[in-house]
Amino acid sequence: MTWVEQEPGVRAAMGELARLRRRAFARPLRPLLYALVITGALVGMRARKVSSFSARVVLRVTEVDLDATTAPRPAQQLREYLREIALGSDQLLEVIRDHGLYPRELERDPSLAVEALRSDLEVDVWRTDSARIGLSYRSDNPDRAVVVVQHLARLLSERKLEQSQPGLLFEVTDPARAARPGSPRPRELVTLAAILFALLLPLAGIAAGAFDSRIYDAQDVRRLGLEAVGHLDPFPGDNVGTLEARLARDRGIQ
């Protein structure tokens, strides 16, 4: 028999992993703590890292088709109008092609590029004396973030009234200035934390089991070259003569 044949096989390796996992999760607090600490450190590093820049422009909406008896449009209706009509797929594709955005998605399928742009674009709608729209675009390049959001605002402000569409006029009131560093969105951090914790927990369990030298069951005894001949349940006085008891006694004497 060669030395290769004498090496433990896959079944032995899987058995050892199962043993380490069983040892670790017999005391689950330690692997849970390890996984939480490492996950928190990695997510914290990701949260502090500036990976994108955000530029924002604000527009005022004039609803020319309203009269004294007509209620203003709700914010949700204005948001849907922007998504479906004023900043629909055709308009967003124009922006994508003009600025060379999302080349891989555009090559595969233009609709993927449009969805990628939508995911980096935030639209806020609120009312003061009239409706206001805030457009924010995120990019890894601060200059690109500014020119893209300016292009989007220009598409809205230059939009002409059409009989078949709502009577809305857009006017830029707060133009985009220098892009601000942005941090990852909370949803991204939560997703990252969930994935990392799911991956790290079994690894932390295996590590905790591997470096824990305490004996928990008969299999641990056999690994020391000893044969377990029986088992006793805990009983009063079962710690007499143990190292812990002797140390406690010595401390009491001192």
List the topology elements.
Blueprint: H1 3-6, H2 10-26, H3 29-48, E1 52-63, H4 75-86, H5 89-99, H6 103-108, H7 110-120, E2 121-127, E3 131-139, H8 142-157, E4 168-174, E5 180-182, H9 186-211, H10 218-223, H11 243-253
Antiparallel strand pairs: 1-3, 1-4, 1-5, 2-3
Offer a concise description of the structure.
The model has no long low-confidence stretch (mean pLDDT 78). It contains eleven helices and five strands. A hairpin with a 3-residue loop joins β2 (121-127) and β3 (131-139).
What does the model show?
With 254 residues, the protein is of the alpha+beta class. It folds into two domains: 3-47 and 187-229, no CATH class; 52-183, Bacterial polysaccharide co-polymerase-like (2-Layer Sandwich), CATH 3.30.1890. 55% of the residues lie in helices and 15% in strands. The chain contains eleven helices and five strands; from the N terminus they run αααβααααββαββααα. Strands 1, 2, 3, 4 and 5 form a five-stranded antiparallel β-sheet that branches. β2 and β3 form a beta hairpin. α2 (10-26) crosses α9 and α5 packs antiparallel against α8 (142-157). The two termini are 60 Å apart. The relative contact order is 0.17. The mean pLDDT is 78.
